[in-house]
């Protein structure tokens, strides 16, 4: 792939930075299509001079997307949101309509490969708007670009994640943490580096085209078990309080009005369904990737939440 050009949409995000870094190591030229070019400049040192180029792009504008994929041999769409925001960036606009626009541009540019990042739980019949929009995006992409490869990760963890970091920050200030629905929802956390490796594998393997892979880690945990693991890692004891779904929905009705909502009704709906790899699905193993356990990675980036931070390990 060393003589190729890859356009990555959403390359400055959590998963994106790892994808860009790994692509750069293979020698490809990477165009990073983002809303804010200045916020993506931290990616440039991951490659040689001129190898990584942030490009200003509005994914809701077809002409802007077409410019971003011009000359690209492959396209990766990592764009996603956890809650609707202003300026027309709702679930359908970002996960469905923009995905179609990117697929159409990739096809018109004669890109040989397209990778669409979706999510485990994508379902056209789901009660969750997030899950429905992800399913609609998958359908749109496959309609326009049948050879596209779709990756559906479970909850993704790593140093910049919005899951463990978020709850560890809460644990630093609050004596209790909520267990929505009693904390029984199952997850199969997947390491961000493994997801990035999966992107590279499917880009370099023509046999992966047109397939769907569900990406999960080697272990399944309940939400409660993940909270217990996080607390043990940061050395803090906190009360875990079960919150029935009904009460959580009432709380989310208020919280989702905040500019950056800590919880929305749609997220509560998602928690009513387990987030694990489906039986019979293609997985990381089919890509030759051995999934990394949470226990191996979590301690490496949770130190700042311990009393004493990094130096707490040396305390008597």
From TrEMBL:
Keywords of this entry:
Ubiquinone
Molecular function via GO:
protein-containing complex binding
Domain NAD-dependent epimerase/dehydratase positions: 6-216
Asked whether the keyword Chaperone is assigned, the reply is: no
**PANTHER family per UniProt:** NADH DEHYDROGENASE [UBIQUINONE] 1 ALPHA SUBCOMPLEX SUBUNIT 9, MITOCHONDRIAL (PTHR12126:SF11), NADH-UBIQUINONE OXIDOREDUCTASE 39 KDA SUBUNIT-RELATED (PTHR12126)
Name under which the protein is recorded: NADH-ubiquinone oxidoreductase 39 kDa subunit
């Amino acid at each position: 792939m060393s003589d190729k050009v890859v356009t990555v949409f959403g390359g400055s995000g959590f998963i994106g930075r790892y994808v860009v870094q790994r692509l750069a190591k293979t020698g490809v030229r990477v165009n990073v299509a983002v809303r804010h070019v200045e916020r993506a400049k931290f990616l440039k040192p991951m490659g040689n001079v001129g190898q990584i180029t942030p490009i200003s792009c509005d994914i809701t504008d077809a002409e802007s997307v077409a410019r971003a994929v011009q000359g690209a041999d492959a396209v990766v769409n990592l764009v996603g949101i956890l809650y609707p925001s202003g300026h027309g960036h709702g679930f359908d606009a970002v996960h469905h309509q923009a995905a179609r626009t990117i697929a159409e541009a990739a096809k018109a540019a004669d890109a040989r490969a397209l990778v669409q990042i979706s999510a485990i739980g994508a379902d056209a019949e789901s009660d969750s708007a997030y899950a429905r929009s992800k399913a609609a995006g998958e359908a749109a992409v496959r309609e326009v670009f049948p050879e596209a490869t779709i990756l559906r990760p479970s909850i993704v963890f790593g140093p910049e994640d919005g899951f463990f970091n978020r709850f560890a920050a809460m644990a630093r200030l609050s004596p209790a943490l909520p267990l929505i629905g009693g904390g029984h929802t199952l997850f199969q956390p997947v390491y961000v580096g493994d997801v990035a490796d999966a992107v590279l594998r499917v880009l370099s393997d023509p046999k992966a085209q047109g397939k769907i892979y569900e990406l999960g880690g080697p272990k399944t945990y309940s939400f409660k078990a993940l909270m217990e693991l996080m607390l043990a890692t940061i050395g803090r004891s906190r009360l875990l309080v079960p919150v029935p779904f009904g009460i959580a929905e009432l709380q989310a009705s208020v919280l989702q009005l905040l500019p950056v909502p800590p919880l929305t009704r749609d997220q509560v709906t998602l928690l009513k369904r387990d987030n694990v790899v489906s039986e019979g699905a293609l997985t990381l193993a089919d890509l030759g990737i051995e999934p990394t356990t949470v226990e191996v990675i979590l301690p490496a980036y949770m130190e700042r939440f311990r009393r004493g931070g990094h130096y707490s390990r040396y305390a008597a």
